[in-house]
Amino acid sequence: METLLNYENPAKNIKLNQMKYQIKITKTEDSAISKMDFNHLPFGKFYSDHMFVADYINGQWTNLEIRPLAPIPMHPGNMAIHYGQSIFEGMKASRDAEGHPLLFRPEMHAKRINKSAKRMCMPEIPEELFLEAVHTLVRLEKAWIPPQKGSALYIRPFMFATDETIGVKPSDTYKFIVFVMPVGPYYTNPVKLLAQDKYVRAVVGGVGEAKAAGNYAASLLPAAMAKNEGYDQVMWLDGVHKKFIQEVGTMNIFFVIGDEIVTPNLDGAILAGITRDSILILLRGKGYKVTERQISIDEVVQAYDEGKLMEVFGTGTAAVVAPVNEIRYKDHIMNINPDNFKIGPMIYETINGLRNCTIEDKFGWIVPA
Ligand code: COI
Predict the structure, then answer these.
(1) How far is the CA of 362 from the centre of ligand 1 (A)?
(2) Sign of the dihedral through C-alpha 102, 7, 52, 105
(3) Which domains, from first to last, does the chain contain?
(4) Which helix H or strand E contains 134, and what residues bound it?
(5) pLDDT digit string, tens, across residues 151-171
(6) CB-defined site of ligand 1, < 6 Å
(7) 316 CA closest ligand 1 atom index
(8) Ligand 1 center to residue 134 CA distance, Å?
(9) Ligand 1 atom 9: the closest Cα is on which residue?
(10) pTM of the entire structure?
(11) What are the tens digits of pLDDT across the range 86-118?
């Protein structure tokens, strides 16, 4: 199959000999890749052979190394465990027909982790360090990128406090780690959502915009309650009025109402999804009427009752584009048939096509690893 990517794009291609940081590499003598079955890949269960690790000590990132993936010893007084300074990113590597490893908008993730770091009073990771860590690890682990459609190499960069001190203050030391995992789709079936009117995820001024580990912990009880009632996830409403839709526990959310595609505006309490941003750009480029605005659950119920709720889909790195087939809010049960969706499947195919270079990337989003 013809590849549509320019591998010599000098602005995008980080070349090994141009790297600013010295990363020590120790390779495993016991690769697990021969045990992998890429045709049966659950999300989040299998790890590749290596991880990148760096320490933040005395105001500097140091000890940069890639080494065999292994547990990291931890003191019981570790501040991340007690006070929650822990943030992460989720990104994906794909491959083209010839097996070249590719990244999707990696610089956006480098920027977003630093936004999270700022909010959680953690040090920034220089963007070049973040990118060099990701590029070097993905190049080393390129055999772990599954070729199957819908599968990818999920990349998990994360940073957490490592001071061993009891007392509420920012840690002085941190670890920045990146590991990668071959994954299949996060959702294998259409998703059922329960709109949550008791618990809230975030309020403006809180930490909802940060990709902080605690945000996911806070979602677990309502998500477990939703599961008990037969729903896959919670759809969060705003923390003040419990009326305006924010996001889903694992992804941003889009509604097609009549001829308008609506997604909640980034009000300061919503995670600024990179897949969300990409989809907005793609849809606008294709001429759709796309609006980022407040959307209340009552508006969705009314649109459903009037037969105008055409599609609902979630978007995220892990989920990519996940069709929603049911939303419940109080006594309102809204069933939507994904077999009739047009925009969600089209945008899913577009993102996949960009990722494997069968659709031309006019945006410079796809970067050789
Ligand atoms: C991602 O989409 O990458 C996330 O971090 C969300 C999580 C559900 C895996």
Answers:
(1) 26
(2) negative
(3) 10-185 (3.30.470.10), 191-353 (3.20.10.10)
(4) helix 127-140
(5) 999 999 999 999 999 999 999
(6) 90, 250, 316-318
(7) 2
(8) 17
(9) 318
(10) 0.95
(11) 999 999 999 998 999 999 999 999 999 999 999
